[in-house]
Fold this sequence. Notes:
The chain is an alpha+beta fold and 76 residues long. The protein has a single domain (2-75), classed as YaeB-like fold (2-Layer Sandwich), CATH 3.30.2310.20. The chain has helices at 2-6, 9-24, and strands at 34-35, 44-47, 53-60, 63-70. It has a four-stranded antiparallel sheet with strand order 1-2-3-4, with no helix packed on it. The longest helix has 16 residues, at 9-24.
Amino acid sequence: MKQYKKLPTHIQLLAEEKEVIFRANPYDSRLKTHKLSGKLFGSYVFSLNNNYRIIFNFSDKNAVRFFQVGNHDIYE
């Protein structure tokens, strides 16, 4: 994911920590995972912190596809 490489190092490290939590339970309350609506209907998002998010989809029962990572601008 190109956006990941452009993130500040401390956000990259935070994303790696949150991915561990996500792999154990995508709906862990620390992630604030929720469905999106509008043009992103069918996708989900989880929070890295108050400013950064990761948009993803469940490809199938055992697979996830991460689409975008970044601040609130990723919703546009």
